[in-house]
Amino acid sequence: MSFISVGFFIFIIGTAIIYYILPKRIRWCILLLMSLSFYAISSIKGLMFVAFTVITSYIAALFMYKCDEKRIRKRWLIGCLICNFGILVFLKYCNFAITNFSLLMSVFNIDIPAKHVSLLMPMGISFYTFQTMSYVIDVYEKKYEPEKNIFKFTLFVSFLPQMLQGPIGRFDRLAPQLFNGNDFELKNVEYGLQRIAWGLAKKLILADRSYVIANSIFSNLNVFSGVHIIVGLLTFSIYEYCDFSGGIDVVIGAAEIFGIKMDENFRQPYFSKSIGEFWRRWHITLGTWMKDYVFYPFSISKHMLKFGKKARKVFGRKIGRVLPICVANILIFFIVGVWHGAEWKYIIYGFYNGIIIALSNLLKPYYEIWAAKCHINTQSKGWKVVQIIRTFILVNIGWLFDACATAELSFKALARTFYEFNFGVLSDGSLLKMGLNMRDWYVLIVAVIILFITSVMKEKGINLRDFVAEKPLVVRWLIYLCLVFATAPFGYVGTTTEFMYAQF
To answer: Residue 258's closest CA among 502, 20, 431, 9?
Structure first.
């Protein structure tokens, strides 16, 4: 069942009606039934993997919490992490490893055919694995007690709709909302439906239109010039943001109908003034997961502490203090790159972001000296705009590795933006040969302007939901209905697909 189908909407509303009719103490049961039923409809075989994650994590957490001997607790933790991340790695990267092993052997004139294995890729395995492993690690650290009811724990792992594309929830914040039952509040239903409508508008009006242009360009790179590639990058940038954040809007909105507040996953990322800030605003829950469970443990490990001491002796206190952080950031983004997909382009994409952040940390003291010598007011609005534009350009260069089919094509596309540069293509009618007619272009441009205005308002601290909620009832619902009915005629349905991260 698709998130953008009428069936999904009816499914959520029907479940909500039953949820609020039932006594509070058993309302979690209908959430569990809804979640497992939805997943079974989409992928009955995938439930086996969900069950494995639930059982291994549930048992490991109970044993770790009861055991006082750190050595044994650590064994349970490592065993659980290996089992669950091992399955994820095997399913996602088995064929990638086979292909590259075959290529490596060919260098030594050893012919080993790359025979790929047909594997089932369960929906949402990346998201529910990361979410569940954070719970296991937190129990190991004794931040809270493990959940003793295996059915309630199953609900935490499998809660629809966040199971398929995030956001990655934390047990201590999410579990009480799932298990305790929430009172009916019309405001929650209103806000939830509003958020779903906004998410669908971003998907159907903006993301799907942008994808048509971007796909037309990046699937035929040899045909298009540097200006076309820049247009493709800009539309791909819109597609990436509107598709992913639109999907998260639907997820958060659906949860809100049940009175469940989920963590936000986006905060106007294209207004970031650095790549580091961009990743603190983009896919926020994944970033915080990496920070809490990889970055900090790695940074304070014995080996990194020793490396830090040696670095300070060799490079001085300032550089030596920053170097371990730089190494940790590169590791983090290598993992992020690998998480995105089993292709070299994603690994390069990860290193690209990690190296930029590492260099910015290393060069920060010199950057401040340079700014002072050039008499640049780094607090001025004009300089902040320059930083935003610079970051946006760097982000879009990174998007090339996602948009192009291979890493090689990504580098070729980047090179082409510096030559074969002819602004005449903007007016020669070639942009109308990429799948969109003039009407679609007008709709896309107007929608981008509206999105930009609303993003600026959010960036200035204006809560749009409260702003609308303050209006009279009739006005409020007129706004909601306009949003819904605008999505129907202006939604681009020619190439409508599922939200991209729902396939992870």
So the answer is: 20
> DSSP letter at 167?
-
DSSP 3-state of 15: helix
d(CA 346, CA 113): 24
Give me the residue spans of the domains in the chain: 6-181, 186-266+406-504, 272-403
| Residue found by looking up tokens 């009719």 in the block | 21
How far is CA 110 from each of CA 12, 96, 475, rounded to the nearest angstrom? 56, 18, 72
Classified as helix, coil or strand, 266 is strand
3-state secondary structure of 282: strand
Where would I find the H helices in 374-418? 381-403, 407-416
Residue 57: closest CA among 163, 132, 124? 132
Report residue 121: phi and psi, to 5°.
Answer: -105, 100
- Print pLDDT tens along the chain (504 aa): 677 777 888 889 999 999 999 999 999 999 999 999 888 887 788 889 999 999 999 999 999 988 888 889 999 999 999 999 999 888 888 877 777 777 777 777 777 776 777 777 788 888 999 999 999 999 999 999 999 999 999 999 999 878 878 899 999 999 999 999 899 998 898 889 889 988 998 998 899 989 999 998 898 888 788 888 898 999 999 999 999 999 999 999 999 999 999 999 999 999 999 999 999 999 999 999 999 999 888 888 888 888 888 888 887 877 878 888 888 899 999 988 888 887 889 999 999 999 999 988 888 877 878 877 887 887 888 889 999 999 999 999 999 999 998 888 999 888 888 876 666 666 666 777 777 888 888 889 999 999 999 999 899 888 877 777 777 777 777 777 777 666 666 665 555 566 766 655
Closest by CA to 183, choosing from 260, 263, 250, 264, is: 260
What's the DSSP call for residue 204?
A: I
Phi then psi for residue 73, to 5 deg, are -60, -40
Total Cβ atoms within 10 A of residue 414: 16
Three-point CA angle 390, 336, 125, nearest 5°: 135
Cβ neighbour number for residue 326 with a 10 Å cutoff = 19
User: 10 Å Cβ neighbour count for 227?
Assistant: 19
Query: pTM to 2 decimals?
Result: 0.90
Q: 82-121: b or e for each residue (b if 16 or more CB lie within 10 Å)? A: eebeebbeebbeebbebeeeeeeeeeeeeeeeeeeeeeee
User: What CA–CA distance (Å, rounded) separates 99 from 413?
Assistant: 25
List % helix, strand, coil for the chain (3-state, nearest 5).
Answer: 75, 0, 25
Nearest to 24 by CA among 181, 176, 179: 181
